[in-house]
Amino acid sequence: MNLRYPILITALIAVFTSAASASTVTYTADQLVAKNLAARGGADKLRALTSMHVSGTLKLGGGLEAKTESWALAPGRWRDEFGLQGLTAIEAWDGSQAWAINPFEGRRDPQKISADDAKDMIESAVIAGPLLDYKAQGSTVEYLGTEDIDGTDAHKLRVTFKNGDSQVLYLDPDQFLEIRIVTHHMVRGQERVQSTDVGEYEQVDGIYFPFELGRNQVDSIELNKPIDAAKFPFPAPAQH
Fold first, then answer.
1. What are residue 59's DSSP bridge partners?
2. Where are the domains of the chain?
3. DSSP of 157-178
4. pTM for this one?
5. Residue range 39-44: mean pLDDT, rounded
6. SS3 category, 150
7. pLDDT of residue 193
8. Residues with Cβ < 8 Å from 197, sequence gap 6 or more?
9. What stretch of H or E contains 17?
10. CATH 1.10.20.140 corresponds to the domain 28-231
């Protein structure tokens, strides 16, 4: 073969070789955990979180929007509220017992709910997320390779909790922040799978949080502000 343009061909080979090398970079699970924690603001800042208050808007379709609000208080307490058309539903986890008030189902008194039905709350109550000090939480993390997510070759990390449930976190290959979270919960013997796309990260007090979680748009986040601990336990009976 007569190579008339050896310099150009050599340059093209170098470019394609470089691109191929970049696309085949491999990581261990712990390397990806470290990159994610660093991208979010650093492990020290995440460990320093004591509370979080989030306000948002949930788009329900048909022009309907609900107001959402949640509170997390370390260690491991959670409450969220869902307001629509003058009614407010409440769910809470105080670290040992979950309960709810759901006026949309005609229930205006608090009802205790099972630990199975509280799994989302229990996981959300870990303010810094599942990757920080995951071994101390009794979890394991596995790297599952990459998967195309809307044109992005995302890294997949599976976090398996000590109860056997798991989350698969899809990390952007450049920023190493989550772009999709898929939860796998066993609820009354059946696997329940939920997928949420996340994005539009913004910095709050030096820590990056997604401001879009599926159909939920976050309006504001407050960190490390006082939260009344009485918001979380099962409400005491009304005094008459």
1. 65
2. 28-231
3. EEEE-TTS-EEEEEEPTTT--E
4. 0.86
5. 98
6. coil
7. 97
8. 179, 180, 212, 213, 214
9. helix 6-23
10. no
